[in-house]
């Protein structure tokens, strides 16, 4: 922690001395972005959340509006259901995502419309059976719960 400005010392002199001392200690060596041009936000206009977006990009985070996140989750759930090792697991995956889809359908969305409706569980399971049979060479039969 830096020391407090002593009374009677002009603020500018005190700051200048702090900077000179830090330079002498090498604290400004190898800083991130050293030698690179400053980013130009002026080209795209001012954005109040520029620092939040930059931090999220640096941390590898992304935030989608809830409806788009659920749309992605529903598509991923369908892929997971088709790849499920058993009919019971495929049903569970589809039923779980359907609960979230129905919740979103009956609440006004905070972002863009969802554009999804619940999946037909029986249709997904029928497709799951056909895909499994094609992949394993089995004959589609009754449930393998």
Give an overview of the whole structure.
There is one protein chain. The protein is mostly helical and 145 residues long. The protein is built from 5 helices and no strands. It has helices at residues 11-24, 50-59, 66-82, 87-105, 121-136. Helix 3 runs antiparallel to helix 4 (87-105) and helix 4 (87-105) runs antiparallel to helix 5 (121-136). The longest helix is centred in the middle third of the chain and has 19 residues, at 87-105. The chain starts with 10 loop residues before the first helix and ends in a 9-residue tail after the last helix. The mean pLDDT is 83.
Topology, pairings included?
Layout: H1 11-24, H2 50-59, H3 66-82, H4 87-105, H5 121-136
In short:
By secondary structure, the chain is mainly alpha-helical.
Primary descriptors:
145 residues, mainly alpha, 5 helices
The strand count comes to 0
Largest sheet: none
Provide the residue-averaged pLDDT: 83
Q: Element order, helices and strands?
A: HHHHH
* Strand composition percent: under 5%
Q: Using the alpha-carbon principal axes, give the shape.
A: elongated
Distance between the termini: 64 Å
Cα gyration radius (Å): 29 Å
Number of helices: 5
Poorly predicted runs are none
Helical fraction: 40-55%
Class derived from helix and strand content: mainly alpha
């Amino acid at each position: 922690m830096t020391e407090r400005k002593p009374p009677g010392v002009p603020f500018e002199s005190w700051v200048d001395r702090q900077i000179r001392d830090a330079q002498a200690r090498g604290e400004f060596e190898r800083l991130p972005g050293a030698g690179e041009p400053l980013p130009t936000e002026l080209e795209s206009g001012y954005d109040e959340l520029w620092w939040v977006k930059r931090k999220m990009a640096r941390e590898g985070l992304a935030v989608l509006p809830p409806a788009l996140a659920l749309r992605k989750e529903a598509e991923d759930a369908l892929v997971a259901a088709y790849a499920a090792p058993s009919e019971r697991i495929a049903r569970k995956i589809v039923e779980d995502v359907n609960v979230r889809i129905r919740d979103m359908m009956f609440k006004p969305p905070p972002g863009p419309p969802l554009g999804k409706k619940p999946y037909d569980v029986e249709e997904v399971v029928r497709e799951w059976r056909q895909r499994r049979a094609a992949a394993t060479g089995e004959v589609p039969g009754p449930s393998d719960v």
